[in-house]
Amino acid sequence: MANSLFQQLNPQTSNGLNMNAVQSVKSMMNTVRGMANPMQALSSMAAQNPQLAGVMSMINGKNPKDVFYEQCKQRGVNPDDVINALK
Fold it and tell me: By residue range, what is the domain housing residue 26?
């Protein structure tokens, strides 16, 4: 996934997170939280954003939390660092 949270691009934190991607995800989370139907909003956003479409495809019926932890482990990223960055 290009420009993902896990990518090693600047500006990054000491834990290697891409802060531009973190801010983008935070903005998307706030948008989706304000929607009456969050799943419909995510589907609509995925139709316009190939990166989000890839994430939605990766989840595809699985528990999103499990997929997140699995991806963190594969990339050698501490999931707590990601969660704290998104707060």
Answer: 19-86
Contact 32, 40 (CB under 8 A): no
pTM (predicted TM-score): 0.66
Domain-embedded: residue 77? yes
How far is the first Cα of the chain from the last one, in angstroms, to the nearest whole number? 22
Cα–Cα distance, 46 to 55 (Å, whole number): 9
Which uninterrupted H or E stretch holds 4? none
> The tokens 């891409």 sit on which residue?
18
pLDDT above 50 for 69: yes
Give dist(CA 33, CA 31) in Å, integer: 6
Q: Percent of the chain at pLDDT above 90?
A: 15
Structurally, how many domains does the chain consist of?
A: 1
